[in-house]
Amino acid sequence: MDREKVRAFMEQFMGMTTSAALLAVTEVAGRTGLLATLAGQGPRALGAIAADSGLNERYLREILSALAAGGILHYDPAGETFELTGEVAACLADEKSPYFLGGWTQFVPALYRAIPGVARAMREGGGVSYAEFGSEAVEAIDRANSPGMRVLLTRKWLPTLPHLVKRLEQGARVADIGCGSGTSTLTLAKAYPRSQITGYDIDATALARGRSAAEREGLANARFEQRSAEDLPREPSFDLVTAFDVVHDLARPRVVLRRIREALASDGTFLLVEPAAGDSLAENLHPGGALLYSVSTLYCMTVSLSQGGEGLGAAYGPKRAEALCRDAGFASFRRLDVENPFNAFYEVRP
Ligand SMILES: C[S@@+](CC[C@H](N)C(=O)[O-])C[C@H]1O[C@@H](n2cnc3c(N)ncnc32)[C@H](O)[C@@H]1O
């Protein structure tokens, strides 16, 4: 046994443990409003933070120390002050910021709660269902995906398809399948008031979030329907079908892709957005791959298997995506030139 290698792995593992523990206290700091209290305040002493936040001072001292030691807060030993810098506040304290990452501190604990169910399913078959994850996961996915979506969808992603933007501006019929809490549906509806956008999902909790946001924002051209993408209406046909981070979660992705092909106008577009990954494990041997395979094991694949599904898994690449689309009858498949570390974008046409 090479002791140096043991020591190196121990260091790697304890780094993972530290990150997991820090993620949990960051979630507590977010939930209690501590991060929002600190945002924009500059350096603050413990007593002042307790007065501002109304939180228990003993807990505060411990959690502020954890966040300072973990590099999330800046600690000044001279004045014994804690500061949340503007840059970190943009990532953790401002839900409206395009850099907001707080959904992840909610999502990872939701994944941990699936551990017993996934372990059971590995022995006995099946999986952990959407119902078992509950509303916590729905909210977390929305909070993790929406910040980028709100800004990038119309500013960076769609402009790679000028013909489509023109059609949306003129007024198009759009289906956003697996819309979840509806941020993509509402972003499209807001940007293209002449278009009619329908968000389809099987999850009533997610759809209720979308409906109330549409009402709040007064978006009459957005609607939500509880319906499986397997039963997407064929008539009248759609000019655009979008699927943001959905296909790999589906029980029967091949059935849905075939249905999308049938529901699209002959000159329509299917915008397929999936996690960015390579087609082989060898291509995915990096931290992003580790995250994808882990989330896939604990969520994406298991929800599909819980429905007797295919369990496609979240980590697959352009070759697999193209084969799936061509099998479903699509003639044209093109990866779009969108720079994005998390997702791959495909223009798929009949
Ligand atoms: C990972 S979430 C993505 C949600 C949203 N598009 C986003 O980007 O945040 C996948 C969504 O697909 C939905 N879904 C799963 N199977 C479905 C089906 N057969 N038909 C429609 N939606 C489905 C789930 O309920 C969930 O909301």
Average pLDDT, rounded to a whole number, is: 97
Unreliable spans are none
- CATH T-level fold name of the largest domain: Rossmann fold
Number of individual domains: 2
Number of strands: 10
Shape: globular
- What is the CATH architecture annotation of the largest domain? 3-Layer(aba) Sandwich
Largest sheet composition: 7 strands, mixed
Q: In what range is the share of β-strand residues? A: 15-25%
Q: How would you describe what is shown here?
A:
The chain is α/β, with parallel strands linked by helices and 350 residues long. It has two domains: 3-94, Orthogonal Bundle (Arc Repressor Mutant, subunit A), CATH 1.10.10.10; 108-349, Rossmann fold (3-Layer(aba) Sandwich), CATH 3.40.50.150. 52% of the residues lie in helices and 15% in strands. It is built from 14 helices and ten strands. The protein has helices at residues 3-31, 34-38, 46-53, 57-69, 86-92, 102-112, 115-124, 130-157, 162-170, 183-191, 204-216, 253-263, 287-306, 318-327, and strands at 44-45, 74-76, 81-83, 173-177, 196-201, 222-226, 238-244, 264-275, 332-335, 343-349. It has a seven-stranded mixed beta sheet with strand order 6-5-4-7-8-10-9, sandwiched between helices. A three-stranded antiparallel beta sheet has the order 1-3-2. β2 and β3 (81-83) form a beta hairpin. It is globular, with a radius of gyration of 22 Å. The model has no long low-confidence stretch (mean pLDDT 97).
What are the SSEs and their pairings?
Elements: H1 3-31, H2 34-38, E1 44-45, H3 46-53, H4 57-69, E2 74-76, E3 81-83, H5 86-92, H6 102-112, H7 115-124, H8 130-157, H9 162-170, E4 173-177, H10 183-191, E5 196-201, H11 204-216, E6 222-226, E7 238-244, H12 253-263, E8 264-275, H13 287-306, H14 318-327, E9 332-335, E10 343-349
Parallel strand pairs: 4-5, 4-7, 5-6, 7-8
Antiparallel strand pairs: 1-3, 2-3, 8-10, 9-10
The structure holds S-adenosylmethionine.
